[in-house]
Amino acid sequence: MSKAAGHIEPLKNRFRTDYCGLLSPEHEHTSVRLAGWVHRKRDHGGLVFIDLRDHTGICQLVFQPEHEELFRQAGQLHAESVISVEGSVIRRAEAAINPKLASGGIEVLATQLSVESHAQPLPFPVADEVQTSEELRLKYRFIDLRREKIHENIIFRSRITAALRHYLEEREFIEIQTPILTSSSPEGARDFLVPSRLHPGKFYALPQAPQQFKQLLMVSGFPRYFQIAPCFRDEDARADRSPGEFYQLDMEMAFIEQDDLFAILEGMFEHLTRTMSRKRITQFPFPRISFKEVMNRYGTDKPDLRIPLEIADVTPLFVNSGFKVFASNTKEGCCVKALVLKGRGTESRLFYDKAEKRARELGSGGLAYIQFREEGPKGPLVKFLPEEELSVLKSTLGVETGDVVFFGAGKWEQTCKIMGGMRNYFADLFTLDPDELSFCWIVDFPMYEYNEEAKKIDFSHNPFSMPQGEMEALQTMQPLDILAYQYDIVCNGIELSSGAIRNHRPDIMYKAFEIAGYSREEVDLRFGHMIEAFKLGAPPHGGIAPGLDRLVMILRDEQNIREVIAFPMNQQAEDLMMSAPSAVLPQQLKELGLKLDLPKKEEKKI
User: Fold this and answer.
1) What is the pLDDT of residues 332-358, one digit of tens each?
2) What pTM value is reported for the model?
3) Other beta carbons within 10 Å of 428
4) I need a surface site. Which of 81, 95, 130, 141 has the fewest CB within 10 A?
5) Per-residue pLDDT, 242
6) Which secondary structure element, helix H or strand E, spans residue 20, and what is its range?
7) Quick one: which of 291, 175, 154, 281 has its CA closest to 224?
8) What is the mean pLDDT of residues 201-213?
9) How large is the angle between the packed helices 548-555 and 148-170, nearest 10 degrees?
10) Are the C-beta atoms of 401 and 373 separated by less than 8 Å?
11) How many C-beta atoms surround the C-beta of residue 406 within 10 A?
């Protein structure tokens, strides 16, 4: 259990004078009062031993038969009953010392016992790590939170938020709370809507993020803002995303450039890593990789840099190739990519069949490869490539005997993503250090992309970002060549946050939206309040909002975000403990002027 309370003296009252996990041989012969939950009970006939647990740890209590009533009471206790005891601290015999417990060198000889709450049989044990379904854990979350690992996660989360506040306040950030009830926005994810009783037919929305409010705070003259902000998005769950709601460290700064923000964030993550975990940062300052480069080398804008594989672009090698599949993908907008696995050229056929199956799942038509064996090159591609091309390929990629090269060809972005998926697939062949934190910045995102379906130019990332080159770039460059001051921070393949230097100038904003097909009137209609604010004096500003849940998940080595949230929903966005969402009374709907129009359930055919 947590030692976070070790620096705080407990309230001394009739329940306790000391914490269980903080007792040591230094307390020998002192009288103490302790309170907590019965973690385990052992009846050895002549003695009853109880492990008493509070949030600091466990202490062993001893009940002797000489105290008949006390001994009888202790023998009848069930696990997780809440008790308070009084007794004296004694040293354990040398052979009885428990090195696994902080208090393992002592025990408390009980002289008084008060049962504060009898516990009925539990739906699952707390003391033993028994495999329990997530449904049962979430239904009885208050019991699940007593278990050591998840209890530690929640305490660690509290310490992280305290450390973040301290770090930012030292750097002149001001914590400001922004509204929870706000207006709906058609952009982004689906909103959670809240009907208004006082304004029938109108709705508030829960904020997907405090984006507009924090930018308006910069316009209001606050130099640096932050907030541990709750955000709400009606989207599906996944391992690193909680459905419905999540928390982020929301930040915004006035009169900054991109490098200034990077320095503050890198210092913050370095401080947290050094002071609050055993982990280490691979490279500091964090490497910066452009969007184009990261897609070319890793096939994703969320790369896990610990994986010792990089994708190679071999497009130029096949411009004049007789192999039409590759040669036809050397024109503009297409590519040929290769991925070398060292020493895996002699794997079984099953290895390659499984790899091809994964490639098809990623959207590829197949997976071409060449094995470079002692007896010569083998594989489906060998018959299509002359010896000269194979030799140049081998030299270019640094291939050695025993290696295998996998290939992908097609449109640039799709091919990059497929090869990136295969890079992640092959990551299981390597031992990745869980204590290594490979942070990186992904920068230079394109401002626009071409929407094939609508046959028009669209924003590719955040439409309110400042284009690199500002107005001149918008007026003189091809839209698809314009880059934006947008950035992501990624750690071990998990995106912690996106951010941007904002577009604070109305003239540039109108032009940026014009290129994406929006008229001046449409921009005013959708974002008029922001335009109006910027017309009245807006400083250059930018920000970011790292996900708090994801950060704690990484630092605690958890694979599922629900393990670091006190009361999470399940994957169907249900709170099983509180039975939410739930139906409401007809009177409540009437007060809001609402009627339900639910789809009819199909009748079962007999």
Assistant:
1) 999 999 999 999 988 889 999 999 999
2) 0.89
3) 9
4) 95
5) 80
6) none
7) 175
8) 94
9) 120
10) yes
11) 24
Q: What's the confidence (pLDDT) of residue 453?
A: 87
Distance CA 127, CA 147 (A): 7
Question: Letter for the amino acid at 460?
Answer: S
Is pLDDT of 45 > 90?
Answer: no
Q: With beta carbons less than 8 A apart as the criterion, state whether 359 and 410 touch.
A: no
Looking at the chain, how many residues does it have? Answer: 606
Mean pLDDT of the chain: 93
Between the CA atoms of 238, 242, 246 and 252, what dihedral angle is there, to the nearest 10 degrees? Answer: 0
Query: Rounded to an integer, what distance in angstroms lies between the CA atom of residue 211 and that of residue 225?
Result: 12
Mean pLDDT of 561-583: 94
Contact 273, 281 (CB under 8 A): yes
Question: What is the sign of the dihedral through the CA atoms of 29, 34, 40 and 45?
Answer: positive
pLDDT for the residue 243? 84
Interior/surface letters 463-489, b for 16+ CB within 10 angstroms, e for the rest? bbbbbbebeebbeeeebeebbbbbbbb
Residue 231 CB contacts under 8 Å (≥ 6 apart), including other chains: 207, 208, 209, 210, 245, 246, 247, 248
Contact by Cβ (8 Å): 546, 487: no
Q: Which two tokens stand for residue 108?
A: 């408390």
The DSSP code sequence of 77-113 is PPTT-EEEEEEEEEEPPGGG--TTSTTTTEEEEEEEE
The pLDDT of residue 166 is above 50: yes
**How does DSSP assign 277-322, residue by residue?**
-S-EESSSSPPEEEHHHHHHHHSSSS--TTS---EEE-GGGGTT-S
